Amino acid sequence: MTDSSPLIHHSEWCRSLRPVWLLAELGVDFDIKAYKWDDLKKPEYLEINPSGLVPVLQDGDVKMQESGAITQFLAEKYGQGQVTVEAGTPEHAAYCQWFHVSEASFMAPGVAALFHYNLSSDKDPEVKNKAIKCINDVLQILDKELKQKGSEHYLITNKPTAADIMMGYPLIMLQDVFKDEVDLSPYPKVTSYIQRLRALSSTQKTFGEYNSLPSGLHHIKAGPQS
Ligand SMILES: N[C@@H](CCC(=O)N[C@@H](CS)C(=O)NCC(=O)O)C(=O)O
């Protein structure tokens, strides 16, 4: 780790993509330490996070876990207002809502539940049905909300915010990892929104190069912003 760069502990397709994407969007230099999934339960990583989960952020004296908290912290520390909205405004209410829906109502009970169902040996269809229902419930609300916005609009404003990155990660995962299990065609506004997110250079770098970096430490030089 270089002294001045934030370091994200990351594993492929994991929630660590949220802070990685955020830093890429902000054009900040940062470090990624990449792990294979199985290495998250080895002593070396358990010393960094005893729960064996990613992401973990190390940034100077700061060490924290929980992807949403890390994304919020980094957006406020490094963003200079670029990916946040003014507190107390109606846009801020929408920002807070989608920022938290992304993990509490969408990723944890829906997308991640489906992921764990696929890994489990006892395939209880009830578990899968519940996860898919939860995903569709959020997609329905999101599609309706996006219908009210212009075609250049992201979730909150005409520029991407940290809330887009929080929601964008599970949405891209649905399209790339779960395309045979979750049908996005009933949600045309959601699919065009994902397309809009994919056009950002930060998205392309995150889900292209950074997602599947080989194990070990990598220094990421800030590129041009989207
Ligand atoms: N709510 C936490 C969840 C963290 C979490 O479950 N991370 C997953 C990857 S997305 C993990 O590290 N799993 C490793 C395992 O289950 O062994 C967050 O948002 O950071």
Describe the structure in your own words:
This protein has 226 residues and is of the alpha+beta class. The protein folds into 2 domains: 7-83 and 204-220, Glutaredoxin (3-Layer(aba) Sandwich), CATH 3.40.30; 90-201, Glutathione S-transferase Yfyf (Class Pi), Chain A, domain 2. Helix content is 52%, strand content 11%. It contains 8 helices and 5 strands, in the order E-H-E-H-E-E-H-H-H-H-H-H-E. The protein has helices spanning 17-26, 43-48, 67-78, 90-119, 125-147, 162-177, 188-198, 201-210, and strands at 7-11, 30-35, 56-59, 62-65, 216-220. A 5-stranded mixed beta sheet has the order 4-3-1-2-5, with helices on one face. Strand 3 and strand 4 form a beta hairpin. Helix 1 (17-26) crosses helix 6 and helix 4 (90-119) packs parallel to helix 6 (162-177). The protein starts with 6 loop residues before the first strand and ends in a 6-residue tail after the last strand. The structure holds glutathione (GSH). Glutathione (GSH) binds next to helix 3.
